[in-house]
Design a protein that fits this description.
GNAT_dom; Aminopeptidase; alpha+beta; 4 helices; globular; 2 domains; 161 residues; single chain
């Protein structure tokens, strides 16, 4: 498996990969991925295996708080899950975040996605306390706007002293 930055020529294959994420992930437009490949490629790694795109994540350093990095999407092709691809992609993002001086990675998940909750917890992310729960998942009501409640997860990055 090779982890590398997103490149423009990968966009059609990336869009096809992201379609496997329904209903939790909606593929972005070609223009959006072009932007990611040109302005955020180091924090938008992809995983290839035998020349095929098998996983991808998109993450962005905050311009308002440069100590934070938000992970927008993480997707691994169903035929390649449970093989460490998500872990490898997020290790790459984590290293980029640390190199940029970030202190916090965070992401959100749909409240009804227990598989995501398990994955983020297994990778060391903490489900932040919210104002509601679904099962054992804490939810922040309207986190992404009216009617867009989310489970929010964070991973605090240790700083070398």
């Amino acid at each position: 498996m090779i982890i590398q930055p997103l490149r423009q020529q990968m966009i059609p294959e990336l869009i096809a990969l992201m379609q496997w994420g329904a209903p939790y992930i909606t593929p972005r437009t070609h223009s959006d991925y072009w932007l990611y490949a040109h302005l955020f490629s180091s924090t938008c790694p992809v995983a290839t295996l035998d020349g095929r795109l098998v996983g991808a994540t998109t993450a962005f350093r905050s311009q308002d708080d440069p100590h934070e990095m938000y992970i927008q999407d993480v997707m691994v092709h169903p035929d390649h899950r449970r093989r460490g691809i998500t872990k490898a992609l997020l290790a790459h993002v984590r290293q980029c975040a640390a190199d940029l001086g970030c202190r916090r990675l965070y992401l959100t998940s749909e409240p009804d996605n227990p598989a995501a909750h398990h994955t983020w917890s297994a990778l060391g992310f903490r489900n932040l306390p919210g104002d509601n729960t679904i099962g054992d998942i804490s939810i922040i009501t309207d986190f992404k706007g009216p009617g867009r409640s989310r489970a929010v997860y964070e991973l605090t990055l240790e700083r070398d002293l």
